[in-house]
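Amino Acid Chain and Its Fold in Token Form
===========================================
Structure side: the spatial fold of the chain, written down as a series of whole-number tokens.
Position: the record begins directly beneath this header, with no further notes in between.
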Amino acid sequence: MARPLQREIVDWDDYVGRFEAIDDVEVRPRVSGPVTRIYFREGEDVRAGQPLFEIDPRPYQAALAEAQAQRASADASLVNARSELTRADELLKIEAISREEYDTRVAAVRSAQAARAAADATITARRLDVEFTQIRAPISGRASNRMVSRGDFVQAGQTALTRIVTLNPIWFSFEGSEAFYLKYTRLNLTGERGSSRTSPNPVEIQLADESSYRWRGRMVFVDNALDPNSGTISAKAEVANPGGVLTPGLFGRARLLGSGSYKALLIPDEAIVTDQTRKLAYVVGKDSKVVQRVVETGPMVEGLRVIRAGLAPTEMVVLDGLTRLQPGMKVKPQDRKLAPRSNDVSPIANPISAPPAAEATTR
């Protein structure tokens, strides 16, 4: 027999989900033409702005040169039109030309100015085309395989070249049930736990080959509606990934902060018996007689079961011989002291392991 341990408890709720990239970009060309160079190695980390592919720039350089020649022609026409207008100003003063002819020369200057502006715009567009022949990484991240080879003809906006995903930080995406959503909403209304929409509630994650929750993250997103087909709501946590171990698509098991802090008692799980839908514990009452207590149980903590209600901290709980006990039976108490049975870690998990090697060679 022993008195329950007293602890300050915080509940965690379990979820299963997968990691996904915060930014996932499929790289496509902005101009058409044959691929002449490939600058990156498949699967390597790339920086934003780093060259990845080159499309044959010669047709676009020729188009740029043509546009620059057109602007030179427009410059010459503008200079001539302005010169004609200057002479017309002097002739108009001595009434050597009509007002109608003068207005024609003014219009010629405006037309030449418009032609010069159009030539400038064409040069800007052609210069962009030349720049677009160098296809650069739009974001920093890890590149996938190249989907084209040198010599392949690619179409602007259509041909996929490669894919880049960001890795640090990374999202852990999962879905919660309607029951959990209602629970968190009510906890937020009472002030016991903030909503994950507005509070960075902590998330702890373990990978498939791990036995503890070693990855730490925080909630950053909860969807605005439940899926009517599954009755679940999508959510995401942001996790630091400085070494790049976590990769999109990786499976994980997470626990999310599920309550505020509350006081509870801990007793061994075997000290609790089940009577249909009730959970019972035996305590030693007056005159050393056994008394039943209906208890409300919670999760396991430190290898012991949480008792939310039904027991007092000073009561002696019977730990052994429960199958022989009857309410009112007189017992001889033997006082023991409870101690935690394990560290305060996650529930027991069975990590996966890599299969054994199929072959081996000597060196």
About this structure: Helices lie at 58-93, 99-132, 178-190.
